[in-house]
Amino acid sequence: MIQNVQTFLRRIGLAVIAVLFFTGAGFAEENTAEKYLFRYKFCVGDVLKWNVVSQINMLTTKSGEREFTETYSGSTKVWKVLEVDENGTAILEYSISDVDMKNKTSLGAEEKTYNSKTDDKPAPEFHDVAEAIGKPLAHFTINTRGELLKKVRKFKYADSAEENRITIPTPENPIALGESWDYPKEIMLPQKDGTVKKIAIRERYTLKSVKNQIATFDFKTIVLTPLTDDRESQMQILAKIKNGTIQFDMKNGCSIRQQLDVDRSVVNPPQMRQGSVTYKSRFIEKYLREEN
Questions:
Q1: The whole model's pTM is what?
Q2: CA dist 16 → 10, 13, 26, 29, 149 (Å)
Q3: For the chain, first and last CA: distance in Å?
């Protein structure tokens, strides 16, 4: 009997050791998952260029009638690194070296186009854009996490960095595949009474893959402020709620590609008793590497 009890206890002991061994192994594996740190790298004198394409289609349906507007814009965006401090924070000069633009509507108007490389005289609606080509538009101060610390406009028609940027706010600490981080922001909506309504949003980034030091993130915009009964605000933020993917070059410390899409509709928008507005857009930005 004693021998049987001893045998039983030995078996239990072995089973407990096995459970502890495998549980410990699993715990160790979970905690040793590779993590990645994402930081921007800037060097004084560097000139960084991106090909930027923006396409917008807007369809308005009212009383059975349909109207559409199509807009295309292609450009080369240039960032020149002016200063870099001991912490890696940089001051960048932003300009646009060329543009190719097209506007078309279903209202019978002639398609409007402007190409800065081939057209000497732009149409009146493109005059401001043509005047800005090749000029410093703004200076941006950006830290190694890609956060915009300061913006100084240098030209009266300067573009918005929030709508057309090369940096994303990277997480403070290293992260593993599948992990996400959020970046809070506010969208300012001017109101008819002269006030400004603040819409709280959250940008969510998720690390999907890392291959050959190129990281791919999923990007999603989450609206936190309730807008269910606010058609006016729904219309105003229609173009700002974007989702997409972003690629980051870990070796060189820069964003190299992003694609952001919008596909949203508002039913019975303001000043329209019955109808809808559908807004679709695609924004693609690709880094132009220097040829060897």
A1: 0.80
A2: 10, 5, 15, 20, 55
A3: 83
Residue appearing with tokens 């002991």: 13
pLDDT single digits (tens) 69-122: 999 999 999 999 999 999 999 999 999 999 999 999 887 678 899 999 999 888
Give the H/E segment covering residue 22: helix 2-31
Tell me how far apart the alpha carbons of residues 99 and 112 are, in angstroms, rounded to a whole number: 14
- DSSP, collapsed to helix, strand or coil, labels residue 130 as helix
Residue with tokens 């507007």: 69
4 vs 9, 10, 11, 13, 14, CA distance in Å?
9, 10, 11, 14, 15
Length of the chain: 292
Which phi and psi angles does 274 have, rounded to 5°?
Answer: -135, 130
Is 215 buried (19+), middle (13-18) or exposed (0-12) by CB count in 10 A?
Answer: buried
CB contact at 8 A, 76 and 288: yes
Residue holding tokens 């173009």?
Answer: 239
Cα dihedral: 114, 115, 118, 124 (round 10): 30
Rg of the chain over CA atoms, in angstroms?
Answer: 26
